[in-house]
Amino acid sequence: MEVFPVFTGEYLFDSCSPVQLLLTQETLTSVRHQHDFLELAYVVEGEGIHMVAGDKMQVAKGDLFVIPPGVSHVFQPQDLSGSRPLLILNCMLGAELFRLPAELQEQASQEDTVRLTRLHGIKNWFGYKEKNRELALLFSRMQEIHNSASRESQLQLYALLFELVSLILPYAAVPFAQQPQPPEDPLHDVILYMVSNFRQRISLKDISRRIAMSSRQFQRLFKLKTGKSYIQMLQEIRMKYSCALLMFTELGIQNIALEVGIGDMKYFYRLFREYSGMTPANYRNKLHSHFLSPKELMSSAEYSSH
């Protein structure tokens, strides 16, 4: 059974707000992960591929995905060269959000509270396709007020969430509709396979067979389209997972190296230093310091390319 890093709300939510909104740019080596909180992932710009649970689909600007706790997923830009970015707004909802403040318990309608409870209990992912910028407007208003710690702003935020939930919840049981898309580049499947199976020893010969090419042809095509060699990309994936494990787990560094498929500790330390500019221990200490905001923590853990 595949196991992916769990991004935990412990490091992401503060006492002021059970909601975090982060704009992130996805890459080909984004980390496939799970959360212990509910996430709404909205495609702000670009086109890409989304692998969620056992499903894979092409996505575009205006698509929204509701990702329950424990469901693994990863985005990948459609463009292999990195020239056309895929931007995702991650709206993360902490458990505290679903315990309504006393004022709201009196003011909110029964329909709103029932819908919020239903959203909290969602077990399977679902998607919603924006019709006329209705999501863009809602998220823009949420971004304007979510950083404020005032009680009034918190109540305003709930009003927007009620509006958002009423809009998307009817689609929870509806299959996500896909628009006609151009043929997918087979290298996307190769890279998604790498993202999910990087712990294993994947030889160049084995990976090139997945798209019926010789190793030499594969290496040339891979470098031409992505700007990186197969080995460079594989090691980048491993280092990004190492960063996530350093932040979100208490695993020892040797266990993290083994978890990402590297048994030689000297080699692991060298790769990690080249990637991050510091040792794994220093990286973890920096992340866990109390001087970093949730946004800085997420960026440091490579969530900005998750």
Describe this structure in words.
By secondary structure, the chain is α+β, with helices and mostly antiparallel strands. The chain is built from 12 helices and 10 strands. Helix 2 packs across helix 4, helix 3 packs antiparallel against helix 4 and helix 8 packs across helix 11. The longest helix is centred in the C-terminal third of the chain and has 19 residues.
Question: Could you provide a short overview of the structure?
Answer:
About 45% of the residues lie in helices and about 20% in strands. The chain is an alpha+beta fold.
| Oligomeric state of shown chains | single chain
Report the biggest beta sheet as strand number plus sense, adding barrel if it closes.
Answer: 5 strands, antiparallel
- In the sheet with the most strands, the strands line up as 2-9-4-7-10
Strand count: 10
Helix tally?
12
The averaged pLDDT comes out at: 86
- Portion of residues within helices: 40-55%
Radius of gyration: 20 Å
The H-and-E topology, N to C, reads as: EEEEEEEEEHHEHHHHHHHHHH
Shape: globular
End-to-end CA span:
21 Å
User: What percent of residues are in strands?
Assistant: 15-25%
Q: State the secondary-structure class.
A: alpha+beta
Which ranges are low-confidence, i.e. pLDDT below 50, for 5 or more consecutive residues? 290-306
